Amino acid sequence: MMPQSVTGETPRLVVDDLRITFRTPQRVIEAVRGVSFAVGREKVGIVGESGSGKSMTGRAILRLTPPRAEVSAKRLSFGDTDLLASTERQMLKVRGRRIAMIMQDPRHALDPVMRVGEQIAEAIPAERRGRAAEDRDRVLAMLEAVHIRDPRHVYGLYPHEVSGGMGQRVMIAMMLMPEPSLLIADEPTSALDVTVRLRVLAILDELVAERNLGLIFISHDLNLVASFCDRVLIMYAGRIVEECVASELARARHPYTRGLLASLPRAGDTRARLPVLARDPAWMTSELG
Hints:
The protein is α/β, with parallel strands linked by helices and about 290 residues long. The chain has a domain at about 105-180. Helix content is about 30%, strand content about 20%. The protein is built from ten helices and eleven strands. Helix 4 (about 115-120) runs parallel beside helix 7 (about 165-175). The chain starts with 12 loop residues before the first strand and ends in a 27-residue tail after the last helix. About 35% of the residues are buried.
């Protein structure tokens, strides 16, 4: 059965039985094992602990896995494009243009020797570029769209001269310049303090709604995903063990999800110690909750 998006429309992205394997002289490592889901015009959160395969899943969609990774799927498609069968040349027309990825830390993703405005302008597809002044105006308009107060000043700065929150907004602006229809955000707020994190999320939410985008939001923060996304996929050991409507995450049934929720500290918590998640080997093979 083909995965469906929650909106009931024909999904933009379909991932069916995705598997990512690494072979070493000692053993075979299955990083992602039979992951299936679809994304339409919605915000889909993928959560799980470090090593659960969530970031690898996001990278596989754009064919950005390491060279040694063996990637297979019954179906990995975006619209009418078969992502697995596409050549590298064909993928260049997908990456950034149709599917964009917002990285975790702008300090590592931005070129340190190029001014911010020049880097954003580079993201304009060649066939849409105009005169230098026109492209500059488009960049300034996008900086305004991500709520940067003084776009002209920020345009001329280098990445090390902007704060973490502003750098993340610059990354969002850059990814939106080609006007993609799907965003993959890989831990986009984990390096930010709480106040700045909320501002960046509000900007993302606004842009997704205004531009009619689909969003895959990869995170380890269950509370954040529950409040921000429409739907949540919970990953454990390379598999999706449960899928929930985000607003109903607190009523999740799978013991792994229940354990993660129980381990979160809460305001006014009277527990002397937070419970430690007890893992069950059956989770490696159990069906979706």
